[in-house]
Amino acid sequence: MKKTLLPPLIPFIGLTLMAEFLVRQGFVRPYLVPAPSAVFRAMIDSRVELLQALLSTSAGSLAGFALSAFTGIAIAVLLSSSRAVQRAFYPYAIFFQTVPLIAVAPLLVIWFGFGIQTVIASAFVASVFPVIANTLSGILSTDPPLRDLFRLYGASPLATLFKLRLPAALPQVFTGLRVSAGLAVIGAIVGEFIAGGGLGSVVDIARTQQRIDKVFAAVLLASVLGLGLFGLINLLSHLTLRRWHASEQAE
Amino acid sequence: MVRRTFLKAVPAVGLLTACGRSSRIKLALNWKPEPEFGGFYAAPYSKHGLDVQILPGGAGTPTVQMVGAGSVDFGIVSADEIVLARSHGNDVVALFAVFQNNPFGIMAHASRNLTNIGDVLKEGTIALQSGLPFARLLERKFGFSHVKVVPSPGGDITSFLNDEKFAQQCYLTSEPIAARRKGASVKVFAVSEIGYNPYTTVLAVSGESLRKNPDAAKALVAVVREGWRAYLDDPKAANQQMHQLNSTMDAETFAEVAEVQKPFIETEDTRRSGLGTMSRERWETLIGQFKELGDISRTIPAEECFRVL
Questions:
Q1: Which domains does chain B have, with CATH numbers?
Q2: What per-residue confidence (pLDDT) applies to A231?
Q3: Considering CB atoms only, which of B88, B131, B151 is closest to A31?
Q4: Radius of gyration of chain B (CA)
Q5: What's the order of all strands across the beta sheet hosting B51-55?
Q6: What is the pLDDT of residue B181?
Q7: What is the pLDDT of residues B262-306, one digit of tens each?
Q8: Cβ of A30 under 8 Å from any chain B Cβ?
Q9: Confidence (pTM)
Q10: A-chain residues within 8 Å CB-CB of B84?
């Protein structure tokens, strides 16, 4: 515990103290960067509103992320079935990565309406590609000698997929999920800018009111959410891979 | 030998570029180039020896912070933003108010047969920038318990056109025109109906700049005033320039909006005291409203908020 929590905590405390000092002494103007104490006060003052917003954004990003995880893995499995299928459809998967989300979000609102469904859709669009890319890469890089072994024993393609290729791809799947988790939070918040609700809405409204302390408080909570999701994936990865994969056995 | 020449050249080039940079005046807009900024594009800056660069903005451009921080020399903000900014210690000052009357309104479908702004909030959906003072005044006055509040789509009227019970915040001079062109029959309610009427499209400068170089500000305001006079008399050239920068609005709409916005810009007050004029009473009323809303903790002296040059 000490080894993982203490090292990142030290620079955090240091930076916070420095920021507080800079704002109090007037080196940085408070309407550009709020003093950490002001952000803390905003968190306490608006705790009910921020907590509700956090719950809403969590729901939206988790749902979007779950959708990305399932759909992404499924698509990757489909793409891995043949070279031809891959060549035909992979470019469209890339579309999800490159489309500018802030431009697509208004379209999502027109199609799905104002509400959490659009937030989920936005989180999905933002986070599905890393899952597809990493899962596909994992499935396709199965050790050739192992594939040969399965072929020698007369295993069907489906059996090879579920008993060899997918399990072997798990570390890469988790890499994809780690990246996707953070993106799901970003996608949810972008969706909230346009569709309303959650931390995105708090940021937008506080910004209009020039309450930069509240903006920082909401952004901080969003980062915590992203970190939380990331930690969850790491835990899942550890539990799944600890018995046999080098990445979880180091140290 | 080469190194010595290079070392001598670097500070010289640096000096030259710094010179160029210091005389270029940056003016940041808080939206895309549209008729509401016409006078700024029509202004004859070079004729008066000024090198002005107009920076178009968009949704969320933080002009009031940009001016306060000094990243631009001048910016377009609204009077209510200035009051809020000053209460947070951001020293910005208004110099020229293009819109004498606030052109914010609520746009609803005519088929709903609504008679006043409160009616709009009795059912359906309303798209507002909830953080804006007028939205909060509306909430205080009428309550949002019967209406679904969603974020303002910023000029996009698609959701409005698709849903009869959808109302949205608008600039009286733009969205209604766009909606009518798409065949919708609209009824608009001016926000000033509830007594909220801050100056809008206001040219602002930082207090520090104003103290250091009042003549530069005065010179710019004079040219801007000329530009607005020119734009009001004939908007065609500036409209063309802006249309090239902002193709989301067609040329016909540019012309229509330029015409429709005239009564907001040229009023009895401006005919008496000049375009862009501001009065202390209007500022005091606004500050009072902010105090009532609880957005500012102490009263700000009205005379600190604006300067008529």
A1: 25-101+198-305 (3.40.190.10), 104-194 (3.40.190.10)
A2: 92
A3: B88
A4: 21
A5: B51-55, B24-28, B74-77, B200-206, B92-99
A6: 87
A7: 999 999 999 999 999 999 999 999 999 998 888 887 789 999 999
A8: yes
A9: 0.80
A10: 209-210
Joined tokens for residue B286: 């606004």
Give yes or no for A56 touching B (CB within 8 A): no
A249 pLDDT higher than 70: no
**B83 CB within 8 Å of a chain A CB:** no
| Res. B88 pLDDT band, cuts 50 70 90 | confident
Q: Read off the tokens for B23.
A: 């005389």
Which residues on chain A are in Cβ contact (under 8 Å) with B129? 204-205, 208
What backbone torsions phi and psi does residue B105 show, to the nearest 5 degrees? -155, 180
* Residue B128: pLDDT over 70: yes
The sign one gets for the Cα dihedral A196, A198, A203, A206 is positive
Scanning B246-285 for CB atoms below 8 A from A yields none
| Per-residue confidence (pLDDT) for residue B20, from 0 to 100 | 44
Minimum Cα–Cα distance from B125: chain A residue: A114
| DSSP H or E stretch at residue A33 | none
A196 touches chain B (CB under 8 A): yes
Q: Is the pLDDT of residue B22 over 80?
A: no
Looking at residue A242, what is its pLDDT? Answer: 81
Q: Is B137 on the interface with A (CB under 8 A)?
A: no
**Predicted confidence (pLDDT) at residue A1 exceeds the cutoff of 70:** no
For B306, the 3-state DSSP assignment is strand
User: A27 contacts in B (CB within 8 Å)?
Assistant: none
Helix, strand, or coil (residue B154): coil
Cβ of residue B297 closer than 8 Å to a chain A Cβ: no
Phi, psi of B119 (to 5 degrees): -60, -35
Mind listing the domains of chain A with CATH numbers?
A: 48-246 (1.10.3720.10)
Q: How far is residue B128 CA from its own chain's centroid?
A: 17
